[in-house]
Amino acid sequence: MAKKYIDHRMSLYTVTEEIEGALALLLSLGFTNLNDEKQRALFGKVITISDALKTKGISLDAFTEMLGERETEEDQSTRIKVKMAGVLPCPVRVPLLENFEEWLSERDFPFHLDYDLKAASMGIGWLSESLENKSGEELPDLFISAGFDMFFDKSRFGRFREENFFEDLTSFSGLHRDFDQEDIRLKDPRKQYSMIGVVPAVFLVNTKELGNRKVPRSWDDILSDEFKNSISLPVSDFDLFNAILLNIYKSHGEAGIAQLGRNMQKSMHPAEMVKSHMKLMERPSVTIMPYFFTKMVKDGGPMVAVWPEDGAIISPIFLLTKKERKKELQPIVDYLLSKEVGELLSHNGRFPSVNPEVDNRISEENRYQWIGWEFIEKYDLTLLIRRCEEIFQKAMRGEVE
């Protein structure tokens, strides 16, 4: 193994023989005669490294620094490159990135990690476009995103799923007890997709706008004729809106999607929904929103948060990891599934974690709705989402009976 320290009394020959990279650097600095092994041994043994460098006006410290920079560049160029890409839920993106970068700074991985994790509000169009016509080898090594659209497009990611390209690297055997329900099985039976948490959709009811109607307690209530032109949906939150469409389709078919469209009053950002009762505007009776935004509801006001009795529809936060990069990706996946990250998701963002050690602060009676892996296998979700959107929009415009 090469020495790391160069003493000024060391001979030029000793430095070229014992210090890795020194000969190549000296040749680049103009010591061309060192390229001849006999000459290098002949005069290199009678001159010190310091005196040799002085002939070129270079100090030993400067030479040592150049050598270190050269080694770093060579190391970076030969290291395996690992790439992460995807989106993070907006409420937790900044603290999660800060925590991740701090964790990363304390580790010296034998690979170069490149990551691009944008806010979920930007959608995944940028990522989808960047993957156009890419081979499996060209894909990022780790994806993270909520929702069903791109990851379950059978013409894109579907072909990689069929080729068994990904592997679930979750290290714990069972998921959080919150998801230990008969109809909730979040673990991918094909052991390819992973999850770190979920985004639940709940109701925010404006009791002032209800009139003589009862507070809706289920998705069946939301789809009743009583709430025609009374519901606000997070259409701009693509991941959660798509999850709502798919779950309604699974339980009520196209008729349910049409009824949801008829009951739709308008689309609002969740932050607008919370304050809609204070504005002079057409106010929805019920808004459907991510559970996170219920933190903004003031006690004693007309806005009441309701967790659906038949379960909050969830949009899972997925991980996709390349099987061939398992060795490099395992510590990163372990971090993303750690209790520390789980608490950031759950406590900062009200996005329940799948880690069994995390206290999600969700009442045990609260249930979830999840479309399930059988449904995912049955349909091309990207095409089904487009079909549901079409029915929904037509119903909103009164074109569907």
Which helices and strands occur, and which strands form pairs?
Layout: H1 12-18, H2 22-28, H3 37-44, H4 49-54, H5 60-78, E1 80-88, H6 90-105, E2 111-119, H7 125-130, E3 142-146, H8 157-162, E4 193-206, H9 219-222, E5 231-233, H10 238-263, E6 264-267, H11 270-275, E7 286-290, E8 303-306, E9 312-321, H12 326-336, H13 339-349, E10 368-369, H14 373-378, H15 381-396
Parallel strand pairs: 1-2, 1-3, 5-6, 5-7, 9-10
Antiparallel strand pairs: 3-9, 4-7, 4-8, 4-9
Helix pairs in contact: 6-13, 10-15
Any overview of this molecule?
- One of its GO terms (molecular function) is thiamine binding.
- This protein is of the alpha/beta class and 401 residues long.
- It has 3 domains: 12-77, no CATH class; 80-199 and 314-372, 3-Layer(aba) Sandwich (D-Maltodextrin-Binding Protein, domain 2), CATH 3.40.190.10; 200-312 and 391-396, D-Maltodextrin-Binding Protein, domain 2 (3-Layer(aba) Sandwich), CATH 3.40.190.10.
- Helix content is 39%, strand content 16%.
- It is built from 15 helices and 10 strands.
- Strands 1, 2, 3, 4, 5, 6, 7, 8, 9 and 10 form a 10-stranded mixed β-sheet that branches.
- The N and C termini lie far apart (79 Å).
